[in-house]
Specification:
Strand content: 25-35%
Structural class: alpha+beta
Distance between the termini: 29 Å
Strand order of the largest sheet: 3-8-7-6-4-5
Number of helices: 3
Shape: globular
Radius of gyration: 19 Å
Largest sheet: 6 strands, mixed
Number of strands: 8
Length: 175
């Protein structure tokens, strides 16, 4: 924390300046991941191949490893009425919650590819997906490891969804 003195409407005020940051691990390829994480990413790649994305041509696949050892997959599903589609991460996490209620999510792998050009960097979840994943992480009271990849190449690994959504909205604000 840093203390700053600033001038506001002609009066000196004391304010705090805070920095929010997190660490992640970057691998050169999925082959450098732990065996179970490399396998999980392979499931995500397969799910990505089954995406329905005729409008964006941006295919995303997600695979979730549950505490009971089950793997649940999801792919993005678009619709001509754009808001009616759903991202791969939410397809997978909502399916996991419906099929295996109360079973903790240990890890989620996400990969993206585009028919319009090569996706060479890891693609993070959108804001809606981050919020949805964080809801599950908060509910189970233990972190969910997030593993991100483009079509291939570098892979990012975060140890918690909360890392990628600082200052998140949660149920405590609802009263």
């Amino acid at each position: 924390m840093q203390v700053l003195f600033i001038l506001v409407n002609g009066k000196m005020k004391i304010v705090e300046k805070q920095k929010i940051s997190f660490e992640l691990t970057v691998y050169n390829s999925k082959e450098e991941l732990l065996t179970d994480e490399e396998s999980l990413m392979s499931y995500a790649v397969k799910a990505r191949e089954d995406a329905y994305a005729p409008y964006s041509n941006f295919n995303v696949g997600a695979a979730i490893l549950l505490e009971n050892g089950e793997i649940v997959i999801g792919s993005n599903q678009e619709n001509a009425a754009y808001p009616s589609g759903l991202c791969a991460e939410r397809v997978a996490v909502f399916y996991a919650g419906a099929k295996y209620p109360g079973v903790a999510i240990k890890k989620i792998a996400v990969t993206a590819a585009s028919e319009n050009g090569k996706v060479e960097t890891p693609v993070p979840p959108c804001g809606s997906c981050r919020q949805s994943l964080l809801e599950y992480e908060n509910q189970q009271k233990e972190p969910i490891v997030l593993i991100l990849m483009g079509e291939n190449g570098k892979v990012m690994r975060c140890t918690s969804i909360s890392d990628i959504l600082p200052l998140a909205f949660n149920k405590s604000y609802l009263g």
